[in-house]
Specification:
Elements: H1 3-8, E1 12-17, H2 23-31, E2 37-41, H3 48-60, E3 66-69, H4 74-81, E4 87-91, H5 93-104, H6 109-124, E5 128-134, H7 145-164, E6 167-172, E7 175-180, H8 183-205
Parallel strand pairs: 1-5, 1-6, 2-3, 2-4, 4-5
Antiparallel strand pairs: 6-7
């Protein structure tokens, strides 16, 4: 695959799911189809457990992938890194929004501006973009105000990215469920259905 190929067919993919649903693994499978991959990590090594988890994730990724840490200012990192890659994989919005809420201490217009900044950066990206995020709307209502602030901002961020995405996938127990498909994917699916119907019809006439 030549470096210019994926630039001409740039796509935006959002992979959602609960904890341990397989979303990161699925996103990495998509990214592996590209030649130059930049992995944007939003997690911070705040304690020993997180440091071990980050180290393990690094070992699990292909050595050829470029890794960039962006716990804050994600939009700036997407803009700069998209010029050097065929695909940018952001993992994940969940931790990024937590970092934003933690830094601001309260939800305000500046916090909401992060949604627009990230969406604009993804839309303007020169490379394809794959974004991983948790779907937190199906759980119980957080008992604390800070938790509700976080849930609301992440939900808004997910909606914003989903609106501009070509493809949205929800991971359930390791299985991808298509929520939004690009026209290219839909046409391919229609062609497969028509081809199958033709083959069945030909068999029926024999």
């Amino acid at each position: 695959m030549s470096p210019g190929t994926e630039r001409r067919t740039k796509s935006i993919t959002l992979v959602l799911g609960g904890a341990r649903s397989g979303k990161s693994g699925y996103a990495q499978k998509i990214a592996s189809r590209f030649e130059r991959v930049t992995f944007i990590a939003t997690g911070q090594a705040r304690d020993g457990e997180m440091r071990r988890k980050i180290a393990q994730h690094r070992r699990d990724r292909p050595a050829s992938w470029r890794t960039v840490e962006a716990p804050v200012n994600l939009h700036k990192t997407i803009c700069s890194e998209s010029k050097k890659a065929d695909v940018v994989l952001v993992d994940c919005l969940t931790l990024y929004v937590a970092n934003v809420v933690g830094a601001k201490k309260r939800l305000n217009s500046e916090s909401n501006a992060h949604i627009e900044d990230v969406c604009n950066a993804i839309r303007a990206s020169e490379a394809s973009v794959i974004v991983v995020s948790n779907e937190v709307g199906s759980g119980i209502v957080p008992p604390y105000r800070s938790g509700r602030m976080y849930r609301d901002l992440l939900g808004q961020m997910n909606q914003g990215v989903a609106q501009i995405a070509d493809t949205v996938v929800l991971m359930v127990a390791g299985l991808p469920v298509a929520v939004k498909e690009s026209k290219m994917t839909q046409h391919a699916g229609d062609a497969n259905v028509r081809g199958s119907a033709r083959r069945n019809d030909e068999r029926g006439r024999r």
